[in-house]
């Protein structure tokens, strides 16, 4: 009797395990019958350095079985199938799915994923693989035989962004024996602070270099002001404190490092701008605000009935106050040091020959004036020689923004002639550094824009964004500001910030570049009708350009209008044969690539 009961007891205990294990093939078959796995966006869309996407899986509800779960495993295969990224899984367990209201008897599970956006991951494949698993420790797993292709490749808007580079040219150089003049150095302070900043956005080093050069100084004028915002303007003594801080700094530097000048022989004049609107209005009128917006600001400030505080509060109520706060207020927290000086005159000589000797270290740099040394760079057609002359000029006269700027232009020109991308970017980065040095010595919107352009070309996106920002804050002619906003919008698309790009495009004005880039954003957001409007605008601005027509073809492909897509592609290829190869490689047309309409369009 004992021998009979013991095997029966063992069988009864093992029954749930056997039942669960036997259920695995049936559950897998039921789940995979009618199963769908979809990724959005499709094709996968890069956003800056990442590729975020969402995967939705639907399976029949009748597959549910106690103790067993169906899962969809996701991985991304690339580099011709040699490498894979395991992404995760969608599990149809309690709390991880919902019942589909549109498709009765279906369960839905959704999850977000992300993969790095690197060149090696495109082309590639997003694959799904089903499996069932026992929900217990060391439970059995049964996997499906085949992979399901969910998406192919990565579409990267950064590769489709339109940016028409501004051609940067050398500043004209003229030899001048007169070594005297007035040097104006701007400074900027943090909100409600009067201490001199030691980081980017100041001219501390330039001021120190000017004092240490020991040129005979006649007069120093120091001016400082504040912004109209409540934190800055309500400190009545703030502008005066900023003046005194600059004055103290200047005198201490002269006392410590200058052997030619003495503070008692220099005429110091100071002026503090307190609660004055003229500087604010000048910045507003040279900003990217629309004319009617400028008029509204001017009306508020010129209203004789309002107090300073009332006008400041009225500005806060403007719908575009964020622009004023971000781009105008910071540059009103300023200080200016204007130094009038003279230096001994030097006679002209054989400029080019002397400059060669200076470059080759056979003569001291003092053999030529800084202007003559820079001028010598115009006397040679060789870019390498120009570069060396400007390098020596900048090294021997660190206050010379002209030398730094022209050195940046020469480095850009050398980069454009390089055959390899790595070497090109190295030149562009060096150019950007020199443009930045020039801009901090002569801070204008144009010079910071040049720095941003070079960083943009070099692929240093963070530095490019910062320099675009500096340029906008300094203000300038409307055409320049519009171009800066246009290029910044292009960069914001590249780094995956479409909302910021749309905001920048509001101030950029209509242009061919802006229409194409706005259309690109709208396509990514499935705003196809609005995207078509932008592409038609671009086509109006450049009737013979292929890019707007190609953009319309992408919209037609997205809308599943194959006939319209074929006609537009044929038109784009007729305008520019390069678009035939582009269309073959474009994931937007992957569903039509084997069709007759697509092949006919590319002939």
Compile the SSE list and pairings.
Layout: H1 2-32, E1 36-40, E2 44-45, E3 50-60, E4 68-78, E5 83-91, E6 98-99, E7 106-116, E8 124-134, E9 141-143, E10 148-152, E11 154-155, E12 180-188, H2 204-212, E13 216-224, H3 230-233, H4 238-257, E14 267-272, H5 278-285, H6 291-302, H7 308-316, H8 321-332, E15 334-342, H9 351-359, H10 370-376, H11 383-396, H12 401-416, H13 421-441, H14 445-458, H15 461-474, H16 478-494, H17 498-508, H18 512-524, H19 528-541, H20 547-558, H21 562-575, H22 578-585, H23 596-601
Parallel strand pairs: 2-11, 13-14
Antiparallel strand pairs: 1-3, 3-7, 4-5, 4-8, 6-7, 8-9, 8-10, 12-15, 13-15
Describe the structure.
There is one protein chain. The chain is an alpha+beta fold. Helix content is 49%, strand content 17%. It contains 23 helices and 15 strands. Strands 4, 5, 8, 9 and 10 form a five-stranded antiparallel beta sheet that branches. It has a four-stranded antiparallel beta sheet with strand order 1-3-7-6, with helices on one face. Strands 12-15-13-14 form a four-stranded mixed beta sheet.
Roughly how much helix do the residues carry, as a percent range?
40-55%
Computed CA radius of gyration, to the nearest angstrom: 33 Å
Mean pLDDT: 88
Number of strands: 15
Number of helices: 23
Q: Quickly give the structural class.
A: alpha+beta
Strand content: 15-25%
Low-confidence stretches: 1-19
How far is it from the N-terminal to the C-terminal residue, by CA? 88 Å
Shape: elongated
Report on the biggest sheet.
5 strands, antiparallel
